[in-house]
Specification:
The chain has about 45 residues and is mainly α. It has one domain. The chain is about 90% helix and about 0% strand. It has one helix and no strands. The protein is rod-shaped.
């Protein structure tokens, strides 16, 4: 039974990393969208 306790803590830690990764991915996606719009504006000019 003692083996499951550290696994739960690891799952909680991994969940925290996942939420951080999600925020990181969302930030990158927002920057990518802005860059794409800027490139489209430059091409249209």
């Amino acid at each position: 039974m003692a083996e499951h306790e550290p696994r739960l803590s690891e799952m909680e830690a991994s969940a925290g990393k996942k939420t951080g990764a999600m925020r990181y991915v969302l930030a990158i996606s927002l920057v990518a969208i802005v860059v794409i719009f800027a490139i489209l504006l430059i091409i249209n000019r």
